[in-house]
């Protein structure tokens, strides 16, 4: 199916008269390539993805070499006009290469099999994002592109990709962006959870970006949640308590408040403050009565202090209470964002000329 | 009355519901009787036919006179805690149904069995019951869905374990944890404070492997600690095809267990009590709880 569409489009471009791309010869990125980018910009996403998937990589590299030269010029003079860059649908190029990358990845057999991480088309998408970040009309798009890509890679457990390709690359262009900092920190935190080795180096790597995220945007409650949890896992119990209590003082959505009280309860428990732990965990269960993570943490504290009857009652309730939503903790380490697909769609919708 | 579950006191029995008493009508003991489940093996073979004189039990280093009592006077509550996350293939599901049959067949009529399934969510598929068919139907209803909360599921099973009796927890997981609020380090102390006997069954793939993980590796050392602290153990099958063998061996331990009764000498001090159980003669592996917690008076 993909091959068929690709050949059809190639035929259309080769035979030429029906489709002419102004300035192609002058620009030199390749008529076919530019045609497919425009196809995507027109909203014909599936056709464009199928066509680009068939392109020889050499052809794409040739086109990119010219764009790299333009990017260098753009760095030295961000406001100078550039007929090629002004003409090309750069946002569409970034999204199209990402979509092709996803289309070319092998499908998972089961959900818990590690997903395949990004390939060379995603790398090319990141290069277009770099170009967009240099242009006044592309910066906001580029920032959101880096962010959603980092979050998506984090969700897929492609943590090196999340941290380096998207997180650090995004922060180079958007230093101190609180959401990018949060995502890089959260990816390190997830690394700590998944590694077969000591989690401590990864937790330490998470501390800096998360603290910077809190500093850059004190209202970003998610950053406080992640920072507090990382401090707890590192044994910095007083710091963790302060961070989480400051977060709780901010209010926030129900899911965030649930997690803040859950983690605070676990901090208290580790510090040996059983009564405070019980209070915090009961508050979490007050916010989400079906929360099994908080129920497990509360039952643990109750069992350790010998209150088997209360522990059993807490677990009994958690096992039998009807559930109409996920426990927020179940997604907590997967990604700090759960609306990734919606935001990718938003970006696609902005790719029109 | 939060006497550690390794100890079943008469006071606990007095507090038990009438229904629970009805399950063990012939059981009457003195005020401070304690019971310890013991399994003895040479290699993989259970050692049967032992009597009271064969055992030596020390509570905090103090030798205690013990009596082997018939294990059927204290019915077992068997909790099957089975992983039903999305990695549960048809082959694994079939293997678990066979495993359930093996374990059910090893129970006595007065014993109860229940099925607690877990993915990210933990849920009863069959609450503890003597109705074997109800458990079989529940095993047939296991469907693969979602992520994996191994540690939270084990905590839940420890919390719902019958504090008055002998609870056997058999937890199977084919994978790693990715959604628990707790980790293995949180569970050993809890397991020590319950009377539950914990067996953990997994397949080799679930243990740390090279490559990019998407779920937290099971901490084999910590799991060994948890299981062995309760008198149970971790069973690792090489593949799904050999999973049945692990469950058959657990079933064999059920049939060949001894229940030792003793009356601790003196006033038990609060806190951790180290238990040592060994054979007076002969060489064999003795699997029993490593200790129990005595509450403040």
How are the SSEs placed, and which strands pair?
The complex is a heterodimer of chains A (353) and B (297).
Chain A: H1 2-15, H2 24-27, H3 31-41, H4 45-53, H5 57-76, H6 83-87, H7 90-104, H8 120-134, H9 139-155, H10 159-173, H11 178-194, H12 200-216, H13 221-233, H14 237-250, H15 254-270, H16 274-287, H17 292-304, H18 308-320, H19 328-332, H20 340-349
Helix pairs in contact in A: 1-3, 1-4, 3-4, 3-7, 4-7, 7-8, 8-9, 8-10, 9-10, 9-11, 9-20, 10-11, 11-12, 11-13, 12-13, 13-14, 13-15, 14-15, 15-16, 15-17, 16-17, 17-18
Chain B: H1 10-15, H2 18-23, E1 34-42, E2 45-46, E3 55-59, E4 62-64, E5 66-69, E6 76-83, H3 90-106, E7 112-118, E8 122-129, H4 132-140, H5 150-160, E9 166-173, H6 184-192, E10 197-203, H7 220-230, E11 234-237, H8 243-255, E12 257-262, E13 271-279, E14 285-288, E15 291-294
Parallel strand pairs in B: 6-7, 6-9, 9-10, 10-11
Antiparallel strand pairs in B: 1-2, 1-12, 1-14, 3-4, 3-13, 5-12, 7-8, 13-15
Quick structural summary:
The complex is a heterodimer of chains A (353) and B (297). By secondary structure, chain A is mainly alpha-helical. Chain A contains 20 helices and no strands.
Explain this structure.
- The complex is a heterodimer of chains A (353) and B (297).
- With 353 residues, chain A is mainly α.
- Chain A has 3 domains: 1-106 and 115-133, no CATH class; 138-230, Tetratricopeptide repeat domain (Serine Threonine Protein Phosphatase 5, Tetratricopeptide repeat, Alpha Horseshoe), CATH 1.25.40.10; 253-337, Serine Threonine Protein Phosphatase 5, Tetratricopeptide repeat.
- Chain A contains 20 helices and no strands.
- In chain A, α7 packs antiparallel against α8, α9 runs antiparallel to α10 (159-173) and α11 packs antiparallel against α12.
- Chain A is elongated.
- By secondary structure, chain B is of the alpha/beta class.
- Chain B contains 8 helices and 15 strands.
- Chain B has helices spanning 10-15, 18-23, 90-106, 132-140, 150-160, 184-192, 220-230, 243-255, and strands spanning 34-42, 45-46, 55-59, 62-64, 66-69, 76-83, 112-118, 122-129, 166-173, 197-203, 234-237, 257-262, 271-279, 285-288, 291-294.
- In chain B, the strands form 3 sheets. A 6-stranded mixed beta sheet of chain B has the order 8-7-6-9-10-11, sandwiched between helices. In chain B, strands 1, 2, 5, 12 and 14 form a 5-stranded antiparallel beta sheet that branches.
- In chain B, α6 links the parallel β9 and β10 (197-203).
- In chain B, α3 packs antiparallel against α4, α5 runs parallel beside α6 and α6 packs parallel to α7.
- The model of chain B is unreliable at 1-31 (pLDDT under 50).
- Classes of the chains: A mainly alpha (353), B alpha/beta (297).
- Chains A and B meet through α17 and α18 of A and β8, α5 and α6 of B.
């Amino acid at each position: 199916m993909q091959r068929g569409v690709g050949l059809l489009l190639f035929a259309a471009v080769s035979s030429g008269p029906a489709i002419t791309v102004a300035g192609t010869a002058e620009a030199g990125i390749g008529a076919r390539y530019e045609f497919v980018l425009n196809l995507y910009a027109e909203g014909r996403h599936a056709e464009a993805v199928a066509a680009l998937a068939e392109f020889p990589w050499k052809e794409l590299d040739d086109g990119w070499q010219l764009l790299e030269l333009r990017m260098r010029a753009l760095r030295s003079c961000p406001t100078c006009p550039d007929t090629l860059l002004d003409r090309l649908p750069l946002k569409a190029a970034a999204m199209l290469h990402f979509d092709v990358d996803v289309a070319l990845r092998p499908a998972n057999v089961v959900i818990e099999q590690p997903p395949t991480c990004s390939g060379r088309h995603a790398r090319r998408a990141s290069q277009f994002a770099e170009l967009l970040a240099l242009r006044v009309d592309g910066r906001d798009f580029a920032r959101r592109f880096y962010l959603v890509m980092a979050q998506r890679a984090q969700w897929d457990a492609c943590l090196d990709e999340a941290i380096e390709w998207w997180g650090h690359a995004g922060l180079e262009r958007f230093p101190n962006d609180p959401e990018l900092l949060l995502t890089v920190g959260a990816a390190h935190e997830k690394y700590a959870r998944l590694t077969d080795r000591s989690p401590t180096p990864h937790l330490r790597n998470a501390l800096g970006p998360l603290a910077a995220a809190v500093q850059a945007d004190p209202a970003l409650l998610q950053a406080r949640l992640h920072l507090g949890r990382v401090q707890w896992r590192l044994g910095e119990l007083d710091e963790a308590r302060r961070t989480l209590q400051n977060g709780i003082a901010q209010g926030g959505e129900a899911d965030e408040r649930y997690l803040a009280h859950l983690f605070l309860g676990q901090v208290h428990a580790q510090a040996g403050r059983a009564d405070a732990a019980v209070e915090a965990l009961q508050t979490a269960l007050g916010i989400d009565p079906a929360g099994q993570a908080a129920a497990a943490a509360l039952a643990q504290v109750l069992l350790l202090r010998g209150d088997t009857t209360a522990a059993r009652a807490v677990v009994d309730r958690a096992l039998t209470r009807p559930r109409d939503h996920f426990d927020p903790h179940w997604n907590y380490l997967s990604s700090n964002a759960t609306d990734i697909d919606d935001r990718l769609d938003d970006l696609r919708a902005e790719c029109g000329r | 009355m939060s006497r550690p579950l390794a100890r079943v006191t008469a006071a606990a029995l007095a507090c038990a519901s009438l229904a629970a008493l009805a399950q063990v009508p012939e059981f009457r003991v003195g005020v401070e009787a304690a019971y310890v489940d013991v399994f003895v093996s040479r290699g993989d073979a259970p050692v049967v036919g032992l009597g009271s004189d064969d055992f030596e039990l020390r509570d905090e280093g103090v030798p205690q006179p013990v009596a082997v009592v018939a294990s059927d006077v204290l019915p077992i509550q068997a909790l099957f805690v089975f992983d039903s996350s999305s990695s549960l293939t048809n082959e694994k599901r079939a293997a678990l149904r066979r495993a359930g049959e093996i374990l059910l067949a090893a129970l006595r009529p007065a014993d109860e069995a229940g099925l607690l399934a877990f993915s990210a969510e933990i849920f009863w598929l069959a609450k503890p019951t003597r109705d074997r068919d109800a458990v079989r139907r529940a095993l047939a209803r296991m469907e693969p869905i979602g992520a994996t909360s191994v540690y939270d599921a084990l905590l839940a099973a420890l919390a719902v374990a019958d504090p008055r009796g002998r609870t056997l927890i058999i937890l199977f997981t084919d994978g790693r944890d990715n959604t628990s609020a707790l980790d293995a380090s949180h569970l050993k102390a809890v397991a020590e404070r319950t009377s539950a006997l914990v067996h953990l069954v997994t397949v080799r793939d679930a243990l740390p492997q090279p490559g990019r993980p998407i779920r937290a590796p099971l901490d084999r050392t910590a799991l060994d600690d948890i299981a062995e602290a309760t008198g149970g153990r971790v069973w690792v099958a090489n593949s799904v095809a050999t999973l049945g063998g692990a469950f058959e061996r657990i079933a064999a331990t059920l049939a060949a267990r001894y229940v030792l009764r003793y009356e601790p000498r003196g006033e038990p001090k609060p806190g951790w009590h180290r238990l040592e159980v060994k054979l007076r003669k002969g060489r064999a592996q003795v699997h029993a709880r490593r200790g129990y917690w005595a509450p403040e008076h």
